[in-house]
Amino acid sequence: MRTIAEFEAAARERLDPAHYDYFAGGAQDEITLRENETAFQRLRLLPRVLRGGDKRDLSLTLLGAPSSMPILVAPTAFHRLAHPDGELATARAAARAGTIMIVSMAATTAIEDIAAAAPDLGLWFQLYLQPDLEFTEAIVRRAENAGVRAFVVTVDSPVLGRRERDDRNAFHDLPPGLAVENLRDIGENRSGGTASHVRDIVMSALNWDHIAWLRSKTKLPVLIKGVLHAEDARLAVHHGVAGIVVSNHGGRQLDTVAATIDVLPEIAAAVGGAVPVLLDGGIRRGTDVVKALALGADAVGVGRPVVWGLAAGGREGVTQVLELLREDFDQALALCGGRRPADLTPDQVRR
Ligand SMILES: Cc1cc2nc3c(=O)[nH]c(=O)nc-3n(C[C@H](O)[C@H](O)[C@H](O)COP(=O)(O)O)c2cc1C
Ligand SMILES: CC(C)CC(=O)C(=O)O
C-alpha cells in the first residue's frame, strides 16, 4: 500500500462498520474533519534550491525524549477495537520506528503492559482530568510507575463532541471483553470502564487551576492538547506548561472550528519558541508535515493513519504507515532544499 488512503480503505473492509465510523467520524457535519485535510491541500510550497547536502537527519529531541522523526503517534482510544493486539501492536511499531507514542487514557490495554511490551519506547500519557482529583492522581501515579515521560492533558473536551455517526450506530459502549484498562482497579467502585464511563468523566469544570494542581503532583512535563486560540497559547506559557499541542481533536469535538494548520502561525508567534509546539489533525502526506514544521510546529501527531495501519495489519501495518510517512516526509524535505526539520521556514509556504 502506497498511501494512507489505501490503508484506510483496507481498514474499512476489515472493521465492523460501527467501529469504522467511530474511528473515522467527526462531530456533527464533519466540516472541521474535512477542513483539517483540505487546509493542507490549499497551501503551496516554495522550495529552496542549490542547498545540496547528501545526508538528511530527521531526528529531534522533545522535552528530553529522542525521536527519530518529527512524526509522533497521537493518542487515540480503543486500539483493541481495531485489532486484537491493540495498543501492544501500536507500541511495538512506534518503538521500532523510534518515535514517541502518546498513549490514550482510554486505551484498551493497561499502561504497564504497553510499557513492558516496548521497553525502549518514549511513552507519553494523555489524561482527561476528572472531577475526582484523587482518582486522577491515582492514574497519574500509575502512569509514572509504568515509566511514562510526560503527561498530555486534553483541554478541548469540557464535554464530549456530538458524533452523529456513533448516535446513528448506537455505538456508546465497548463490546464485552474490552475495557478502558487504565481506569480499572483504581479506587473503590471503579470497575473499569466503557466508552460511556469515559464520557461521564470528562470534566466541564476544567480550568487553569487544575493544570497548576497537576504540575504540583508530578515532576514530569505537562503539555496541554487542544489549543486553537493564540491567547490560550500565551496563557499556557504563563502557567508553565511544558508544551502545546495545536489540535481540534481530529474534528471530533466542536464542528466548524478552524483547521489546525490555519491557526498554527498565530500560535507559534504567541509562543515565540518558549515551549515546543506540536500539531495534529489531517496529516496524511509528507508535504503536510513539511508545511506544519515550516509554519512553526516542532513535530506533528498522527491519529487515524495509525489506526488504519493497525486495523489493516496489526503491528506490521502500523510500521508500514509510520515508515510511509517517514519516507514521504524525507523526500518532501529534500525537495524543499532542507536537510533537517529545522531548515524549513515560514516563507516556504504560500498561504
Ligand atoms: C478514534 C479516535 C480516538 C481518539 N481518542 C483520543 C483520546 O482518547 N484522547 C485524546 O486526547 N484525543 C483523542 N483523539 C484525537 C487525536 O489525539 C488527534 O487529535 C486526532 O486524531 C488528530 O487528527 P487525525 O486523526 O486527522 O490525525 C482521538 C481521535 C480519534 C480519531
Ligand atoms: C473515549 C473517548 C472519549 C476518546 C476520544 O477522545 C475520542 O473518541 O475522540
TrEMBL record:
| SUPFAM superfamilies from the UniProt entry | FMN-linked oxidoreductases
- What positions constitute the catalytic site? H249 (proton acceptor)
The record's InterPro entries line, in alphabetical order, gives: Aldolase_TIM, Alpha-hydoxy_acid_DH_FMN, FMN-dep_DH, FMN_HAD, FMN_hydac_DH_AS
List GO molecular-function terms, semicolon-separated: FMN binding; oxidoreductase activity
Q: Which residues form the FMN hydroxy acid dehydrogenase domain?
A: 1-351
**Sites where the protein binds FMN:** 75-77, 104, 126, 154, 225, 247, 280-284, 303-304
Needed cofactors: FMN
Q: Which UniProt keywords apply?
A: Flavoprotein, FMN, Oxidoreductase
Binding locations of glyoxylate: Y22, Y128, R163, H249, R252
> What is the name attached to this protein's record?
(S)-2-hydroxy-acid oxidase
Q: Domain of life here?
A: Bacteria
Regarding protein family, the annotation reads:
Belongs to the FMN-dependent alpha-hydroxy acid dehydrogenase family.
Q: Which CDD domains match?
A: alpha_hydroxyacid_oxid_FMN
Q: Which GO terms describe its cellular component?
A: cytoplasm
Does the keyword Ribosomal protein feature in the UniProt annotation? no
